[in-house]
Design goal:
The chain is of the alpha+beta class and 186 residues long. It has a domain at 113-185: Alpha-Beta Plaits (2-Layer Sandwich), CATH 3.30.70.1070. Helix content is 30%, strand content 17%. The chain contains four helices and four strands. The protein has helices at residues 11-33, 59-64, 125-137, 161-174, and strands at residues 113-122, 142-147, 150-158, 180-185. A four-stranded antiparallel beta sheet has the order 2-3-1-4. β2 and β3 (150-158) form a beta hairpin. Mean pLDDT is 77; it is low at 107-111.
Length: 186
């Protein structure tokens, strides 16, 4: 009676086996191309220059050379300096009075239309408010509008449809939300 089991390697085991095999092959290739890296029998060649070792002076020669006399060092004495006073110089500038420029006011359209991007609509006001709070923390101008039984979450307003399209693209890129442009007529 043979007790034969059908064992198969898992994906992780296969990946580990391939990794070990590739490391072994890489090691053989490196050893073939750079054999000096794997030669442990000889002394290593010094590629760096080592500092010369100071030779010990024999005692006989130390007796022959007379010691050099010490040189006296004169202390440096600092003299007190007179305090320097700096007087501030004041430069006067001529003040030129500018005439105020007139403020240009854009004429508003007869009907005040604004465009928004709607990114959600919820039955529960709490869910709409949660999304609004989250987006406000990230710096977006968000409003909740109640439309019938739903609470719509709108980002905006923008004055033109083109600006709203740019806003929609920005929302899709930055927030990964899909939405659509709505027009609010007040």
């Amino acid at each position: 009676m043979s007790n034969q089991s059908n064992w198969k390697a898992s994906l992780l085991e296969q990946q580990i086996a391939w990794g070990v095999a590739l490391c072994g092959i890489l090691l053989v290739i490196i050893a073939a191309s750079q054999p000096q890296w794997f030669d442990f029998s000889s002394k290593p060649t010094a590629s760096k220059q080592t500092a010369p070792i100071a030779k010990a002076v024999p005692q006989d020669q130390a007796k022959l050379d007379p010691p050099t006399p010490a040189v006296a060092v004169k202390p440096v004495v600092k003299t007190a300096q007179k305090p320097v006073t700096i007087e501030p110089t004041v430069k006067t500038k001529q003040v030129v009075k500018e005439t105020p420029k007139p403020i240009k006011i854009k004429p508003q359209n007869v009907s005040t239309r604004s465009y928004y991007v709607q990114i959600g609509a919820f039955e529960e006001k709490a869910r709409a408010q949660g999304m609004t709070d989250h987006l406000k923390k990230r710096g977006w101008s968000v409003r909740v509008f109640k439309k019938r039984a739903l609470h719509a979450v709108w980002i905006g307003p923008k004055e033109t449809h083109e600006e709203a399209e740019k806003l929609l693209k920005t929302i899709q890129i930055k927030l990964k939300y899909t939405g659509f442009i709505v027009q609010n007529r007040s």
